[in-house]
Design goal:
heterotrimer; A alpha+beta (477); B alpha+beta (95); C alpha/beta (484); B: 95 residues; alpha+beta; Histone, subunit A; two-stranded antiparallel ribbon; C: 484 residues; alpha/beta; Amidase signature (AS) enzymes; eleven-stranded mixed β-sheet; 11 strands; globular
Chain lengths: 477, 95, 484
């Protein structure tokens, strides 16, 4: 039996602000418990919320980035429920009129573009944290995170596989960092996805019942959780079972999803407009102001790199896959590196090393200035590609060393002097008459053997391209 | 519309307020009375009327993103019914 | 010191006829003597008040005196005051020492006024008789068997019995004006947003507004000068130029158009009260004002709409009292749920619980449109009625309360009868208008209040009309027997 998979994602993006959504308390991560829980974070009697300007600007940025309607008037509402890490007994969110309306994010599925429709994005606040077992049978509440600004981004159910879900999540993850509204730190919970999954018979028009996998904070978990959940749902339906709407948790250790014991048996959040907050009005002028300071978006930059720098589509996409990679790349270009070589080196050797060692490009042991000198030396013929790889290894291990110095120290400078190469080639031809004969009698292989001899005679330093052309020239005489 | 004991139970649960069996009759009687008073609203047609959430037609002001709050942890933990290791302690939260 | 207006007290302090320490001690002594029978105060802290008075005297010595410097003010126990117990009349906050100052308290502290103590009130400001307080009922100084009105009943009794020269109150549906009427003094609820709500414990956020309670309109104007002003900590605080509320007190009221809504004189109004109000209106005509008949056709829907909106907001506002971070927590509990349920059952009184239940109900799935949304639409209708009315008149007048002070316990078991106490005051909260109550006469030695309702931001207009009346009458100067 064939099944369609239908996936929608709600992402909680923690906004990169100094202070909380509704108070002047710091949002710094990892501080002493409750040291950033101000009067408002702790919901003291009488305290009131005042909205953070920066989170509004962040939401506008996001709206512009996904080509969405930005509501001229949006409303904050209270979502009422009891939980010890929710100090007010309600979360301030947006319900009927969110700040960002419909937009879209284009993702790349096997080279084909696909638009994922964004239904809405709204501002809200995070809850605190409960930790269990601090004291036997008790929970401890830390309200440092309570009130941290979030932008919740909700898609239409447009994704149709775990892979697509991950591609979307990665693309969104890049975008929110790119436009500077989120630090993207998934370990610290700055980017968390709730994934709605349902399945239906292939081609059926009616959607199946969905289950919502809560709080996935890694791309790997999204993949694993969705795969598991899809299989679970299909198996259940094929066994004649039914799917009940549910909120579920993914357990990374077992790789399984499991129903949560319900926070509130019958969820009835009793949303109503927060009387402590007034309508948020955003004018065209406000939007224009943000437009002016919006960075070039990844898509725009990708097209520009293809057109102006002659990068392949593949390379341009790789280079714009994250703002930090782009930044690194642009520094190489500024330092005079050849764009194509630079893209190759970043996406090739540098990426494979960074990935191997799980290092962020920001912390790359090889600085853009080192890599650019390396690339420049390749381009001006000073060193061969092989030598460059050797130097790259050395740079990786010894930060701070100069490329030119390594070339000198190890004598890696390639021989590009045509007189010198002429001399070596002549010498090799003289000493390998058999090979020359073989070549002349039509054995192409002999040519390569002769190149090998020249390289050997030059101790590997002769410029291979030059060797090849000199040999060809001399043999054709 | 009016309220019955079943609904009172549901609402009391949402509001996390115990209404004991002894109290429920009294509570029901009073809530039914209040709801009857509220019911008067249905006399008037409000179809095309814009709901009014705020007394004045003004807009939300925005706050500069600057840290202004003071660390009041010691004071606040001292006010808590139970705190240890800088945390507010409650019975185990079950997920 | 007794019966002196704020202006006179201020002048005397200025001229060093007495010090703030002496003045504060004088009123503290009165509190000591009379509070046991009135129960107007929840917290009196003589040492703290006297320390503030000493500081105020230093300010005066240093020539840094402003109008209310050194004057003791009774503060409703709804205003968070750093270092002071702030209970909001509830067991839930019985031992809550506020770690911060509300903006109102901050403003009084800032100019060197003295906090005389925290006054009793209906629990979380929900009540019209001050009988829902966890700290016991407040008694009316005019008749100890009667209620003082509510919810600012403690402040009301304190001002009426001259335990304090002036007090603060809050008004969500009439909680300043109704007790002012029942206790025979002047009380003003400003335009919504004029006084910051920061640190004022919330009952119904879109309706709550703090205001002054004092002997005269002139005193209220001076209090208002201190209390108003934009506050960045309150999103609903109005950002407008600060006014001087005493500026136009003496302006002639020739030709002032006074609108009389016919709905205020229909069912529910005690006929003796009606007579007193009509006499006051005749007085206004004598003073040159013109009486104009107007209509507020949706006024009868104000109470129904209010008893949806206020409980809805309250049910949510009071969710924070969960026994986790501060305040009351039940002694014994099995688990988290049990802790929540018992804490809230034991920590809240009956009226508060009733309103939480009603509020939860009207917001719950399936009822939101029929109740909450409907009430918000009616709120618009009521507000529109006032807009139309102010095209024809300058201020609106009528009774503040349907009757004089009633006997303690009389309406305690009948919430509906109690809710009718606010029949003339609630609509102005829904519309956010400024309104005041001034003494206009007596029925069987119990005071009757006249209500003056202004258009938005027209506090000066109602203060002016009230002041002119008070210059020509002496109802506001009468004080109950047995308090000297």
């Amino acid at each position: 039996m064939d099944w369609d998979i239908v996936i929608g994602i709600e992402t909680h993006v923690q906004l990169k602000t100094n202070t909380k959504q509704f108070s002047g308390a710091s949002t710094k991560y990892g501080s002493e418990p409750n040291s950033q829980a101000c009067l408002v974070s702790m919901a003291y009697p009488g305290v009131l919320p005042v909205l953070n300007k920066e989170s509004v600007n962040s939401a506008i940025r996001f709206g512009l980035a996904i080509d969405a309607e930005i509501s001229p008037r949006s409303i904050f509402a209270r979502k009422n429920y009891f939980y010890p890490d929710l100090p007010k007994g309600y979360q301030i969110s947006q319900f009927e009129l969110p700040i960002v309306g419909r937009g879209k994010l284009s993702i790349d599925i096997d080279g084909q573009p696909k638009d994922v429709r964004i239904l809405r994005a709204h501002l809200e606040e995070d809850a605190g944290k409960s930790s269990h077992g601090v004291i036997e049978g008790k929970s401890g509440i830390d309200l440092n995170r309570a009130g941290t600004p979030l932008l919740e981004i909700v898609t239409e159910p447009d994704l149709s596989s775990a892979e697509e879900a991950v591609i979307y999540a990665k693309k969104l993850h890049n975008l929110v960092q790119w436009i500077g509204i989120c630090d993207g730190n998934m370990q610290e919970g700055s980017f968390r996805c709730d994934v709605n999954v349902s399945v239906k018979r292939k081609g059926a028009s009616e959607l199946g019942t969905r289950r919502e996998i809560k709080n996935l904070n890694s791309f790997r978990f999204i993949k694993q959780a969705v795969d598991y959940e899809v299989n679970w749902q299909i198996e259940r339906l094929e066994d004649g079972g039914r799917i009940e709407q549910a909120t579920i948790l993914f357990n990374p250790e077992s790789g399984e999803t499991k129903s949560m014991r319900s926070k509130e048996e019958a969820n009835d959040y009793r949303y109503f407009p927060d009387p402590d907050l007034l309508p948020l009005i955003i004018t065209d002028k406000d939007i224009e102001k943000i437009k002016k300071i919006m960075p070039e978006l990844p898509e725009e930059m990708k097209t520009r790199f293809e057109k102006d720098l002659g990068l392949s589509g593949y390379d341009a996409k790789g280079i714009t896959s994250s703002r930090d990679v782009t930044k690194y790349f642009l520094e190489l270009i500024d330092l005079g590196a050849n764009a194509k070589l630079a893209a190759n080196w970043v996406l090739g050797n540098l990426f494979s090393q960074l990935n191997n060692k799980d290092i962020d490009i920001l912390d790359s042991p090889i600085s853009p200035s080192q890599l650019s000198s390396l690339i420049n030396r390749i381009e001006d013929g000073t060193i061969s590609n092989n030598a460059a790889k050797k130097i790259f290894e050395i740079l990786w291990g010894n930060t701070g060393k100069k490329v030119d110095q390594i070339i000198d120290d190890l004598g890696l400078k390639q021989i590009s002097d045509s007189n010198e190469i002429d001399g070596i080639v002549d010498e090799v031809l003289k000493n390998n008459l058999t090979m020359v004969e073989e070549f002349k009698s039509g054995k192409e292989k002999a040519f390569n053997a002769l190149i090998g001899q020249v390289m050997k005679a030059s101790k590997g330093k002769a410029n291979p391209a030059q060797v090849s052309s000199t040999l060809k020239e001399k043999l054709s005489k | 519309m009016s309220i019955n004991k079943e609904e009172i139970k549901k609402v009391a649960h949402l509001a996390r307020i115990n209404v004991s069996k002894v109290e429920v009759d009294q509570v029901e009687k009073k809530l039914v009375g209040i709801l009857a008073l509220i019911e008067k609203m249905q006399e008037v047609n409000t179809e095309s009327i814009e709901p009014m959430s705020h007394a004045l037609d003004i807009n939300q002001p925005l706050r500069e993103d600057k840290v202004t709050a003071k660390d009041i942890r010691d004071k606040s933990l001292a006010l808590a019914p139970h705190s240890e290791q800088s945390l507010f302690i409650v019975p185990q939260v079950i997920e | 010191m007794l019966n002196l207006s704020l202006k006179k007290l201020s002048q005397a302090l200025e001229k060093k006829e007495f010090t703030s320490v002496e003045l504060t001690q004088f009123f503290l002594n009165r509190v000591k003597k009379l509070n046991p029978s009135l129960n107007a105060f929840i917290t009196v802290d003589e040492a703290k008040s006297m320390a503030m008075a000493e500081k105020s005297d230093q300010l005066i010595q240093a020539g840094k005196k402003t109008m209310l410097t050194g004057i003791p003010i009774a503060q409703k126990d709804i205003f968070c005051s750093e270092g002071w117990k702030t209970t909001c009349g509830s067991k839930m906050l019985e031992n809550f020492i506020s770690p911060y100052d509300s903006t109102v308290i901050h403003k009084f502290n800032d100019i060197g006024a003295v906090n005389l103590g925290k006054t009793n009130m209906d629990e979380f400001a929900m009540g019209s008789s001050n009988e829902t307080s966890y700290f016991g009922p407040v008694r009316n100084p005019w008749d100890l068997n009667c209620v003082p009105g509510g919810s600012s009943g403690g402040s009301a009794a304190a001002v009426a019995a001259r335990l304090a020269p002036a007090a603060t109150g809050t008004d969500t549906g009439g909680s300043i004006r109704q007790p002012a009427s029942l206790c025979g003094f002047t009380g003003l609820k400003p335009t919504y947003g004029l006084v910051s709500r920061y640190g004022m414990i919330a009952f119904a956020s879109s309706l709550d507004q703090a205001g002054p309670m004092a002997i005269s309109a002139e005193d209220c104007a001076l209090m208002l000068d201190v209390m108003t002003g934009h506050d960045e900590k309150d999103s609903t605080s109005l950002d407008r130029k600060k006014e001087n509320y005493s500026n136009f007190l003496d302006k002639k009221i020739d030709g002032l158009r006074i609108g009389i809504p016919k709905e205020f004189f229909e069912d529910g109004l005690n006929s003796d009260v009606q007579k007193v109000i009509q006499e006051a209106l005749r007085q206004y005509e004598k003073l040159g004002a013109k009486i104009i008949d107007i209509s507020l056709p949706n006024n009868h829907l104000a109470i129904p709409a209010y008893y949806v909106i206020a409980p809805a907001e309250a049910s949510s506002n009071l969710s924070r009292y969960d026994g986790v971070r501060y305040g009351y927590r039940t002694k014994e509990y099995d688990d988290l749920m049990d802790m929540y349920f018992k804490t809230r059952q034991e920590g809240f009184g009956d009226e508060v619980k009733r309103r939480i239940l009603i509020g939860t109900y009207v917001l719950s799935a399936g009822y939101f449109d029929a109740y909450y949304l409907k009430a918000q639409k009616i709120r618009r209708l009521i507000s529109n009625d006032f807009k139309l009315a102010y095209e024809k008149c300058d201020i609106i007048m009528g009774p503040s309360a349907p009757s004089v002070a009633f006997k303690s316990g009389e309406k305690q078991e009948d919430p509906l009868a109690m809710y009718m106490q606010d029949i003339f005051t609630i609509s102005t909260n829904l519309a956010g208008l400024p309104a005041m109550s001034i003494p206009a006469g007596f029925i069987n030695e119990l005071p009757v209040g006249l209500q003056l309702i202004g258009n938005h931001f027209e506090e000066t207009k109602i203060l002016n009309a009230a002041h002119i009346y008070q210059k020509n009458t002496d109802w506001h100067l009468k004080s109950p027997k047995g308090i000297d």
